[in-house]
Design a protein that fits this description.
The protein is mainly alpha-helical. The chain contains 8 helices and 4 strands, in the order E-E-E-E-H-H-H-H-H-H-H-H. It has helices at residues 72-78, 89-94, 108-113, 123-150, 159-188, 191-201, 206-218, 223-238, and strands spanning 32-33, 36-37, 51-53, 56-58. A hairpin with a 2-residue loop joins strand 1 (32-33) and strand 2 (36-37). Residues 1-34 are annotated as: Disordered.
Length: 253
């Protein structure tokens, strides 16, 4: 894996076991070579998809042996994007500068403006990039193992075991990345909305709130934030305390 986690894969990289391996031409999927079957990539039983439960859609559990969220392999997965310089949809449409930090954390403009659906904090988007990372890793491992068999460095009977070990290593890191995404999401989701509500409730200056609403509408502050300020302004005018709780969803660990 690359240092930054955002560069494209090549067959000359180090394997996930940490030892360099030669890079022969990629085999055709499902070809039977010297007694073993070359795995299909992406795997037909891919576990990297949202799971439907009675409580709604949730991120999957893909390993019982997750790396901790601070593990270096988790860091590489959580910061990987196919196009690392790409903007989120909102910033691209608005012509704003946009910077990806890591999956589960909205970009700075979306955070400040209270945008609730920044692509960088979207679970489906996270899984898309995680699958692309996985497929590249699996192709490199498959190529290296086929080459090892051809060069008599690995018995054909051990191909499936070695490939299974490689996939298990990846899914341990992937589960750590999923856990870290959930931590990031729960820490940052609707954070600006909660902050704006706190600030609005801390003042009784109706003029200040009115000016904020006018400026917010001009600068594309999200309507949910403007609604919070409007509710506070109304409560000041009518002398009613804003009872609105924060019912934003939380992703379960």
């Amino acid at each position: 894996m690359s240092q930054s986690g955002n560069s494209s894969f090549s067959s000359s990289r180090l394997s996930i076991f940490g030892s360099p391996r030669p890079a022969p031409p990629a085999p055709s999927p499902s070809d039977d070579i010297q007694g073993f079957v070359v795995p299909v990539i992406p795997p037909p039983d891919c576990p990297l998809h949202m799971v439907a439960t009675p409580d709604g859609l949730h991120l999957p559990r893909v390993s019982a042996n997750a790396h901790p969220p601070t593990h270096r392999r988790v860091q590489r997965l959580i910061t990987f994007r196919v196009n690392p310089g790409g903007k989120c949809v909102h910033c691209a449409e608005s012509g704003l500068d946009c910077k990806f930090t890591e999956a589960g954390i909205p970009c700075p403009p979306c955070a400040v403006l209270g945008i609730p659906d920044c692509r960088f904090a979207d679970p489906d988007d996270f899984l898309y990039h995680l699958k692309r990372r996985r497929d590249a890793v699996f192709r490199d491992e498959r190529t290296a193992l086929v080459n090892a068999v051809h060069d008599n460095h690995l018995p054909a009977s051990l191909f499936a075991w070695e490939y299974g070990r490689a996939t298990a290593h990846f899914y341990s890191a992937a589960q750590g990345a999923i856990d870290r995404f959930i931590i990031n999401y729960n820490a940052t989701h609707r954070l600006s909305l909660r902050g704006y509500r706190t600030l609005a409730n801390a003042t009784t200056d109706a003029g200040l709130l009115s000016r904020f609403m006018a400026l917010g509408a001009e600068t594309q502050v999200h309507r949910s934030v403007l609604q919070v300020v409007a509710n506070r302004l109304l409560s000041i005018i009518t002398n009613i305390v804003d009872p609105s709780p924060d019912n934003s969803p939380i992703l379960p660990l």
